[in-house]
Specification:
The structure is a single chain. The chain starts with 5 loop residues before the first helix and ends with a strand. α2 crosses α3. The chain has 2 domains: 64 residues, Orthogonal Bundle (434 Repressor (Amino-terminal Domain)); 123 residues, Umud Fragment, subunit A. Helices cover 23% and strands 27% of the residues. The protein is an alpha+beta fold and 209 residues long. Strands 2-1-3-4-9-5-6-7-8 form a 9-stranded mixed β-sheet, with no helix packed on it.
């Protein structure tokens, strides 16, 4: 007889999604607007979230609520999905579409069931300006989109649209500031003399060994 509680089932499913997407609990907490402790309690099975938070989590991972609320059948043999290539962008060619072949340095092959919807690409983090959130050398999955919410990490074109960088977006009135997470680095204020253009939102990062 199955004696698992709903909290345990939810905890197992949430932990599986977090591990599959290779994110940490703090990133999830920030994305859905809850405390780190709340996510920790859910993952341990100590507490159960309100139904509106369940929906936010499902939307974040782009899964059905049932994927969080229902126990997975353990005696089924998983079938390896076909992989799809996700481009890794290098130097951006002026005037070319972002995902043009001229801008691609390599491809990372991913399982489609682990990817969000939309046009996706990877950027390799260079330097320590976004540490500790994004370590130097990690590959950051980005969904192409022209705007992101305040406080989100975005891929932004700078230096005459030739270099893509990762920074947190901060809006103050009509002013947009590119904020590093590392306090040892200075913010970048977007002005006519210092233009920049958002090309996507950072979703998750991974590292190669």
């Amino acid at each position: 007889m199955n004696n698992k509680s709903q909290r345990q089932i939810f905890a197992e499913n949430l932990k599986r999604l977090i591990e599959r997407r290779k994110i940490d609990q703090k990133e999830l907490a920030r994305a859905i607007g809850v405390s780190d402790q709340s996510v920790s309690n859910w993952v341990r099975g100590d507490k159960y979230p309100r139904i509106d938070k369940v929906q936010l989590i499902a939307d974040y991972f782009q899964v059905n609520k049932s994927d969080l609320l229902e126990e997975r059948v353990s005696n089924m043999i998983p079938v390896a999905p076909q992989t799809v290539p996700v481009p890794v962008l290098g130097t951006i060619a002026c005037g070319e579409p972002i995902l043009a072949e001229e801008n691609v340095t390599e491809y990372i092959y991913e399982s489609p069931d682990q990817l969000p919807s939309g046009n996706l690409f990877y950027l390799k983090a260079k330097g320590t300006s976004m540490e500790p959130t994004i370590p130097d050398g990690s590959y950051v999955l980005v969904r192409e989109q022209p705007e992101v919410e305040n406080g989100a990490i975005a891929a932004v074109l700078v230096n005459g649209d030739t270099e893509a960088t990762l920074k947190r977006i901060k809006r103050q009135g009509d002013m947009v500031i590119l904020m590093p997470d590392n306090p040892n680095y200075s913010p970048f204020i977007i002005t006519p003399d210092n233009p920049a253009r958002i090309i996507g939102q950072a979703i998750q990062f991974t590292q190669k060994l």
